[in-house]
């Protein structure tokens, strides 16, 4: 299988949104909103076009990763610019083939060269700990509402990049999805059935509950 990575172009937008919908449908919850999120992210001031990467297999788009600028408001009073990674998507039939890992490594590489300190995301430790991330709590990084969250992970892009950045992580407000708008946007795609109670949905529910006060 020949996988190539390149920057997304405007002509790719519809296909990439389809890939994202397929990747997330019924994954964390019945249906998904990630394709709508991707659609509106590209016009967000925090969007980093240099980190809008797609994976192709024989000319077919099979994966995508995007980033937004975010900030850690440190306890020492300083603000540290970082990146939020996601959504990161791979078509279901191409998952477990290392494509997600390739997208993450390419993202790290480019972000490092651009001078970013670190990448943060919320995801399953079973996967992201194998991709070079560590629990954000390890570095004293909490959510915006000052909670330690098991699903929150960080990857420093150079040694001690966040050595003084113990504090609260604020991602862009665009992640606060307007569900009505997302549902309307989804009507542009072929109908898909909603499924409730999948093992991954239960796993996501468990991870979401793993929070505690700092």
UniProtKB/TrEMBL annotation:
UniProt keyword Transferase, yes or no: yes
Pfam family, one: Acetyltransf_1
Domain of life per record: Bacteria
Molecular function terms, GO-annotated: acyltransferase activity, transferring groups other than amino-acyl groups
Keyword match Metal-binding: no
InterPro entries documented for this protein: Acyl_CoA_acyltransferase, GNAT_dom
Residues annotated as domain N-acetyltransferase: 3-152
Keywords assigned by UniProt, alphabetized: Transferase
UniProt name for this protein: N-acetyltransferase
């Amino acid at each position: 299988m020949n996988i190539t990575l390149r920057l997304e172009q405007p002509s790719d937008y519809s296909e990439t949104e389809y890939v994202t919908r397929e990747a997330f449908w019924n994954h964390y919850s019945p249906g998904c909103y990630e394709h709508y999120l991707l659609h509106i992210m590209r016009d967000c001031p925090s969007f980093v076009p240099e980190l809008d990467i797609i994976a192709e297999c024989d000319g077919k788009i099979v994966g995508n990763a995007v980033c937004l600028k975010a900030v850690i408001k440190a306890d020492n009073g300083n603000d540290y610019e970082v990146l939020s990674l996601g959504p990161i998507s791979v078509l279901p039939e191409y998952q477990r083939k290392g494509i997600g890992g390739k997208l993450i490594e390419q993202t790290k590489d480019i972000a490092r060269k651009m001078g970013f300190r670190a990448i943060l995301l919320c995801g399953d430790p079973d996967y992201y700990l194998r991709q070079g991330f560590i629990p954000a709590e390890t570095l004293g990084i909490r959510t915006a509402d000052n909670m330690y969250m098991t699903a929150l992970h960080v990857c420093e892009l150079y040694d001690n990049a966040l050595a003084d950045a113990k504090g609260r992580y604020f991602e862009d407000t665009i992640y606060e999805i307007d569900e009505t708008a997302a549902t309307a946007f989804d009507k542009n795609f072929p109908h898909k059935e909603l499924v409730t109670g999948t093992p991954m949905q239960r796993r996501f529910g468990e991870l979401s509950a793993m929070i505690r006060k700092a």
